[in-house]
């Protein structure tokens, strides 16, 4: 550990450059999956531009409570067939998962398949519920 700290002290410029590259790579990868939106930003976007919330959670979670008018497509089904959202190719799509972390892979796939406006709701349904925003239940 002492040698590592000595190396960092002597090569601080190199270490700083490596850190900067790592941060830029992380930011680039995050952007490829879609824009991260707060629940309020997501509501505004969907309402203003006739977009859609796509709830990617499993059926039991969806039935327990979901955003009104949200389309339910489990993430595994969406990864296998992005054509399920063909009607929204040029409209805002807001991906919603349980905690806002698993939507990234689906967002990357949708972007790669040519969807123009893919977004991810930060915090997922946990954030939505913590803000006490309305939900609809089917169960």
Structure in a nutshell:
This protein has 139 residues and is α/β, with parallel strands linked by helices. The chain has helices at 2-10, 12-33, 39-49, 59-64, 75-80, 103-112, 124-130, and strands at residues 35-37, 52-55, 71-72, 93-96, 118-121.
Write the layout of secondary structure elements.
Elements: H1 2-10, H2 12-33, E1 35-37, H3 39-49, E2 52-55, H4 59-64, E3 71-72, H5 75-80, E4 93-96, H6 103-112, E5 118-121, H7 124-130
Parallel strand pairs: 1-5, 2-3, 2-4, 4-5
Helix pairs in contact: 1-2
Task: Give an overview of the whole structure.
Helix 1 (2-10) crosses helix 2. The protein starts with a helix and ends in a 9-residue tail after the last helix. Helix 6 (103-112) links the parallel strand 4 and strand 5. It contains 7 helices and 5 strands. A 5-stranded parallel beta sheet has the order 1-5-4-2-3. Helices cover 51% and strands 12% of the residues. With 139 residues, it is α/β, with parallel strands linked by helices. The chain has 2 domains: 1-33; 34-130, 3-Layer(aba) Sandwich (Oxidized Rhodanese, domain 1).
